[in-house]
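Run folding on both entries below.
>entry_1
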Amino acid sequence: MKARPEHFAPAARVLHWTMAVLLIAMLFIGAGMVSTVSERHEWLLHLHKPLGIAILALVIVRLLVRWFTRQPPLPADLPAIQKLAAKLSHWLLYALMFILPLVGWAMISAAGDPVMLGASVQLPAILPAEPHTFALLRKAHGFLAYLLFLTVLVHLAAALYHGWIRRDGVLQSMTSGEKPHA
């Protein structure tokens, strides 16, 4: 049996950093959309929809890569509660990256609006148009977006803790793959 790798597979690292940029962009775009009632934010909505679908597709690819590649182990001396928190927070991130685009798609469908991916590609509605469902999904989408933002902040804080304080190779396993110099 092969030893566990010291760093994530290149495909996992590329997907991680690509999705990190997309998620941060989506959070800012979403904040920009809800911060005003002006029609001037419509271009943000036209950007938000295809990025959401891209994130949905990429998280599926990312889960496949995760299932078919070996991940480096967490440090042996890491307390069990931190290991559990790491596993749970990663699965929460995956769940949110999967659920948020679906809730957004359902919300737009319930509003009776098309989900356009560019000028000519339209996704089918996944729910019938219904104002009460739209209102519920809009609240859910906003709540889940805040939860994603909080989870990303905690993930970033944990990465920096491992990279700058513990210097245990966890952060490097997703960046260069190189062990930190003591």
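>entry_2
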Amino acid sequence: MPVRAIRSLAFEDLTLGLSELVFKTVTDQDIVGFADISGDQNPIHLNELYASKTRFGQRIAHGLYTASLISAVIGTRLPGPGAIYMSQTLNFKAPVKIGDVVRIHVEVAELIEGRQRARLACECAVDATVVLDGEAWVRVPSRLELMSAA
């Protein structure tokens, strides 16, 4: 992802419909690096000859690599540092290939004030094709919590 300033929003700053949109071009280095970190050495991700014989016809990114792009948005932009993942659902709909530009969209869909929880609608798309969607529940710190952590 391009380097962007980290934005830290407190629970009090969130409103329904608030969203963040980020774009990421998937590289060979991303896929190899994710395989190294995760230990997922499935040849569909790493071996061109093997992948060429699959229904995809070429190497594809790990599904959880694409999901990690959502995590990056949540951890750095919406709501940002201090947010704690509670859960994440993922629906994988289409493959992501080397060179694809993934559009990552995260939007506040529900707020539970008493518990400082936010439900975030999450979607990744390549061109007009949704490749992954789901929702995340996060605990979002208050302004007071953010100030005391700084």
